[in-house]
């Protein structure tokens, strides 16, 4: 059978039926979350600091990152000293 140049012939693909998966099949417990800032920031996640203009977001972020770099508590919470900070912080402006 001749088809157009850009049209492939129809093929039937035989596949196994989908297997049922239950949560009880998971044997291992997931590892506990790795907090880099006690209860507020998880390693490998995005944290959003938002607020009205001129309320001190940049100053607060500067304080948080200074504490992180020094490995000292910040705002009464323990900070786990990060392996690196370079490239981890993005400051976005709107308006």
Overview of the structural elements:
This protein has 95 residues and is low in regular secondary structure. It has one helix and two strands. It has one helix at 57-70; strands at residues 35-37, 41-42. A two-stranded antiparallel ribbon has the order 1-2. A hairpin with a 3-residue loop joins β1 (35-37) and β2 (41-42). The radius of gyration is 25 Å and the shape is elongated.
- Strand arrangement across the biggest beta sheet: 1-2
Structural class of the secondary structure composition?
little secondary structure
Mean pLDDT: 76
Shape: elongated
Q: First CA to last CA: what distance?
A: 61 Å
Q: Note the beta-strand portion.
A: 5-15%
The number of E-state strands comes to: 2
The major sheet is characterized as:
2 strands, antiparallel
Task: State the gist of this model.
The protein is mostly loops and 95 residues long. The protein contains one helix and two strands; from the N terminus they run ββα.
Keywords:
95 residues, little secondary structure, 1 helix, 15% helix
Protein topology:
Blueprint: E1 35-37, E2 41-42, H1 57-70
Antiparallel strand pairs: 1-2
